[in-house]
Specification:
CATH topology of the largest domain: Tachylectin-2, Chain A
Pathway: Glycan biosynthesis; sucrose metabolism
Main location: cytoplasm
Shape: globular
CATH architecture of the largest domain: 5 Propeller
Number of strands: 33
CATH superfamily of the largest domain: Glycosyl hydrolase domain, family 43
Number of domains: 2
Family: Belongs to the glycosyl hydrolase 32 family.
Radius of gyration: 22 Å
Distance between the termini: 23 Å
GO cellular component, one term: cytoplasm
Keywords: Carbohydrate metabolism, Cytoplasm, Glycosidase, Hydrolase
Structural class: mainly beta
Strand order of the largest sheet: 22-33-24-29-30-31
Strand content: over 45%
Helix content: under 10%
């Protein structure tokens, strides 16, 4: 790990000069980032770990990067927490989770070695300061997948319920994705309980990064990232788990985020009893122009979860308002010039006269990205077809409301945009990459349909 940390220190200042460097999102100091891991509140601070390769801006044998914060908006990078050391994890310390027990923080993760049989096992590391971790001598604590699973057996999420540790792990068998459940009294000895829930045959052939939590006595939620599910990348199921059998019965399911650049979300509960979600803000097999600058990948802003009418609602945590500095717009203006693309844009629009409502970002060389609502097609859109690099596509999701107006709130951070519709009833996350400079924000729609518009500059904290 010393070598990994030296590599990061060597490259960090150069990486921050990247045109696409994010102002207020967690991104690696250098190198590669994907799944968030081990989100936890420990000794008065928020901790976020993530899948990390410190030696290049491409995926490699996974380490665990690490950052912490007191307020969810100012993050401090810490030394690499986990690195491959032993044969059972020679291919990487894959995704997992964190829990607090007594005075200690425990990381549970998947050890991966493609040359080993089985190739994926579950492991634990402990810390008493939240920075330096020691892997248990008992590792791997789960050394073989269950009969109901397969060698694809990864991404443990651990939580305490009824004085027992529970662990859900993603797996598959015969083309059916599933979440399998284990229980333990001490985080070392785990007993297999059974299949918590599995695909109905249409929900993917492998479930990655499962996460289970309760939002009330009557509402349990399972989230996961299905592989090879047509039209879907991240799913939630709302229902109830039978505590005795460990079986989860879903009443409703849906997409967590409709953007292209959103995968492997994970949640945690903080000291205010909020359930907060953070996700990888990229996607496999997509263009990532920042790689040429020595880094790749980022995490979303933290989002608070709730359930309304058996649907998952995601809204930005309240702390995001503390990033506001200068209010650029408080009444309708058709165009504004933007000095630094760290912005919060909020609009309330009526659906009376306009075909499209929202805003466009454009540069002086003609490239553009359009964000908003298509009133004809009833679609929330992020249209990147006007861009000159990165993905050039139309991201859209059907949305209808009984009201005659829609609220759009967007967090823009130089090369990312997170759009929240009507308080988080629909969310869409995408990356974008301008070649040009001199960015203009233009309001789309008839002036009579723009009920409210507000644009804030946000301070860069990273």
């Amino acid at each position: 790990m010393e070598k990994a940390n030296e590599e990061l220190q060597k490259n960090a200042q150069k990486v921050k000069q990247s045109k696409f460097w994010l102002g207020y999102h967690i991104a690696p100091p250098a190198g590669w980032l994907n799944d968030p891991n081990g989100l936890v509140f420990y000794k008065g601070e928020y901790h976020a770990f993530y899948q990390h390769y410190p030696y290049a801006s491409q995926w490699g044998p996974m380490h665990w990067g690490h950052a912490k914060s007191k307020d969810l908006i100012h993050w401090e990078h810490l030394p690499v927490a986990l690195a491959p050391e032993y044969d059972y994890e020679a291919g990487g310390c894959f995704s997992g989770s964190a829990v607090v027990s007594g005075d200690g923080m425990y990381l549970t993760y998947t050890g991966h070695n493609e040359q080993r049989d089985p190739k994926e096992v579950q492991c634990v590391a402990k810390s008493t300061d939240g920075i330096h971790f020691e892997k248990l001598a008992e590792n791997p604590v789960i050394s073989v997948p269950p009969a109901h699973g397969s060698p694809d057996f990864r991404d443990p999420k651990v939580w305490m319920q009824n004085d027992i540790w529970n662990m859900v792990v993603g797996s598959s068998k015969d083309g059916i994705g599933k979440a399998v459940l284990y229980r333990s009294k001490d985080l070392k000895d785990w007993e297999y309980t059974g299949v918590m829930v599995e695909s109905d045959g249409t929900q993917g052939d492998m479930w990655e990064c499962p996460d289970f939590f309760s939002l009330s006595e009557d509402v349990d939620v399972l989230i996961f990232s299905p592989m090879n599910m047509e039209g879907s990348k991240t799913r939630y199921m709302i229902g109830k788990m039978d505590q005795e059998t460990g079986k989860f019965e879903a009443k409703n399911s849906g997409e967590i985020d409709y953007g292209i650049d959103f995968y492997a979300p994970q949640t945690f509960q903080d000291d205010q009893n909020r359930r907060i979600l953070i996700s990888w803000m990229n996607m496999w097999k997509k263009d990532m122009p920042e790689q040429t600058d020595g880094w790749a990948g980022a995490l979303t802003i933290p989002r608070e979860l709730s359930v309304e009418n058996e649907k998952l609602i995601m809204k930005p945590v309240e702390e995001m308002k503390n990033l506001r500095t200068n209010q650029l717009v408080s009444t309708y203006e058709k165009e504004i010039k933007v000095a630094d693309l760290c912005l919060e844009v909020e609009m309330v629009v009526s659906l009376d006269n306009s075909n499209k409502l929202g805003f466009t970002l454009s540069s002086e060389i003609g490239e553009s990205i359009i964000v908003g609502y298509d009133t004809i097609e009833k679609q929330i859109i992020t249209d990147r077809r006007g861009m000159l690099q990165g993905e050039q596509d139309l991201c859209q999701a059907h949305y209808q409301t009984e009201n005659n107006e829609i609220t759009l709130k967007a967090y823009i951070d130089r090369s990312s945009i997170e759009l929240f519709v009507d308080g988080g009833k629909l969310v869409m996350t995408n990356r974008f990459y301008f070649k040009g400079d001199n960015i203009t924000l233009s309001i789309e729609g008839e002036k009579s349909d723009i009920q409210e518009v507000s644009v804030w500059e946000l301070k860069a904290t990273m």
